[in-house]
């Protein structure tokens, strides 16, 4: 990220390795050079890998290593163990509401309290379920995943910084 306020102004860098990862080129193949990029960056000798691309490959290797780590797999497993059953339960509850509304209109029209009928209670239950599920997800993330994910993030940050230091700074 560069500051464009005045000519010759120093570049402002974000040191967070997760910041704008796709925009910085991670996850893109090396073959997707834009036309005229050689003129901008200066022509490199044939077979030489530009310093910026070396850093990009090193960072990608770090991310792949972390992705394969048991700690990352545990975070993903905790995520899946909550999200998949919760999403299925909510989907079944929603479909039951829709099916009951169309297949059993007499049941849904049954009054419960004055003008309030079963359909109104079930519809309000959908909203209540959404809010409860959101709260449960946030609580689960805070208690079971956030700390481990933050530790992984800092591991990646430290490894990336160590590689940059070993290469002699940012290119």
Which secondary-structure class do the elements indicate? Answer: mainly alpha
Helix percentage? 55-70%
How many β-strands, per DSSP?
2
- Give me the number of helical elements: 5
Distance between the termini: 14 Å
Please tell me how large the radius of gyration is: 26 Å
Low-confidence stretches: 28-49
Looking across the biggest beta sheet, what order are the strands in?
Answer: 1-2
Shape: elongated
Main pleated-sheet profile:
2 strands, antiparallel
What does this protein look like?
By secondary structure, this protein is mainly α. It contains five helices and two strands; from the N terminus they run ααααββα. A hairpin with a 2-residue loop joins strand 1 and strand 2 (116-117). Helix 2 packs across helix 5 (118-167) and helix 3 packs antiparallel against helix 5. The protein is elongated. The relative contact order is 0.11. Residues 28-49 have low confidence and may be disordered.
């Amino acid at each position: 990220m560069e500051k464009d306020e005045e000519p010759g102004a120093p570049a402002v860098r974000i040191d967070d390795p997760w910041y704008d990862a796709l925009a910085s080129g991670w996850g893109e193949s090396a073959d997707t050079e834009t036309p005229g990029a050689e003129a901008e960056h200066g022509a490199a000798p044939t077979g030489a890998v530009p310093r910026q691309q070396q850093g990009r490959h090193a960072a990608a290797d770090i991310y792949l290593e972390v992705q394969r780590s048991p700690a990352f797999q545990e975070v993903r497993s905790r995520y899946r163990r909550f999200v998949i059953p919760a999403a299925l339960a909510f989907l079944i509850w929603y479909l039951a509401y829709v099916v009951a509304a169309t297949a059993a209109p007499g049941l849904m029209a049954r009054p419960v309290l004055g003008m309030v009928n079963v359909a109104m209670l079930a519809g309000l239950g959908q909203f209540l379920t959404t809010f409860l599920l959101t709260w449960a997800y946030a609580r689960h993330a805070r208690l079971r995943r956030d700390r481990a994910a933050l530790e992984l993030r800092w591991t990646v940050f430290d490894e990336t910084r160590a590689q940059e230091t070993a290469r002699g700074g940012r290119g």
